Each structure stands twice: as C-alpha cells, then as structure tokens.
Structure prediction request, 209 residues.
Amino acid sequence: MRQLVTTLTTALSAVALIAVSTGTATAYPPTPPDQTTARQQLAELTVRSEGSMNGYDRDRFPHWSNQSGNCDTRETVLKRDGSGVSVGNDCYPTAGSWYSVYDQQWVQDPSEVHIDHMVPLAESWRSGTADWSDSEREAFANDLDSQQLIAVSGTSNTDKSDSDPAEWKPANTGYHCIYARGWINVKHAWGLSTDSAEKTALSNMLDNC
Prediction:
C-alpha cells in the first residue's frame, strides 16, 4: 500500500473558527502543508496526460469502511466536520449542523451532507489508481489522515463531480488556497499524477495564498 508522506499533519482544523452569522464551524480535515511546501510538492508530481476511464467503477473503491465501534468513514467525517453533533448508538447523527466551506452554506440535515473526495475517485483513476489493487483503492477512498475527505453541501459536491481544479473550483474564492494545498498534498501523498492544465490551475490558486 502506498505510504503517506510523513509531512501529513494531524491537526483537526484547516480553517479555524470560520465565523458566520448563524454560528461557527471549527472542524475540518487536517491542515494541509503550507504554500512553500505545496509548491515543492506540486513540482514533484509526475505530469502526464490523464489516463482512460476503461474499467472504472466506484465499486472498485470500497467505501465507507468501518473506523471505530459502530462508526464508518462517512459517520466519522460527519462527527469531525460538524458543529454541535450528537450521534445515536449506530453512530448516525441525531443533531448537528455542517458548514460547507465550498459554497459557504450551512446544512442542517445530515442526510443532505455529502462527503467529498477532494481528489475524486474517477480523477484518481485517470491519475494512477487504475493500476492499484482494490485494497489500496479502499484505503484511498477512506483516507482520514490527509485532506481527502470533507463534509460539504450536496449542491457543491454535485457541481464539482469528478472535475479537477482546471475545470472546477469552490465558489468560495477565499478557500482556493487551502483547496489547492490540500489537493496537491493528497496527490503527492498517494503518488498520483497531474496533467499540465491541472498543474497550472493549482499554481495559480497558490498565488492567492
């Protein structure tokens, strides 16, 4: 299985205390490496044209895996990324709210919260995971140690689909710096490639840091 780079941090907040009129969201994925490190990592990514989608199926990326007790990966992210979250014996939230940093919207119903793969599974297939084993792909799809998973609104996640940063960016421009740093770190940690347009877009996003 691919080894995550040791520079992955364990901090629980990528954006600390995002104040909005209806409350405060304090938990997000681990903070990505800083801008300087991100540029170094971007320079180290293999640049090549995207591979084909031949053989792709989301079932080749088993998720959501069990994490702790009755909690699977999705429920773990819902607890981590929400505000005022309480859960039942089955680990499903019974209360809470979720701030979608992509589009600056609060979501109150956990069933309407999407867990976004920052580097979409289809994008990862075109960037290298097509050659992995299903167990490696499962680890990637359930990665809680990097910035790969984040709770967002269904609207923003559907809008993003399997696009890379050359094709889609969060509507919240203030998040572009962290988004680029996180995307780069995930690809670097898992040894995935980038195409030239994607690399240019990421570099431009880092200019906003």
Remarks:
- DSSP finds seven helices and nine strands in the chain.
- The mean pLDDT is 89.
- The helical segments are 35-44, 73-81, 121-127, 134-141, 154-160, 176-190, 196-206.
- The first strand starts at residue 18 and ends at 20.
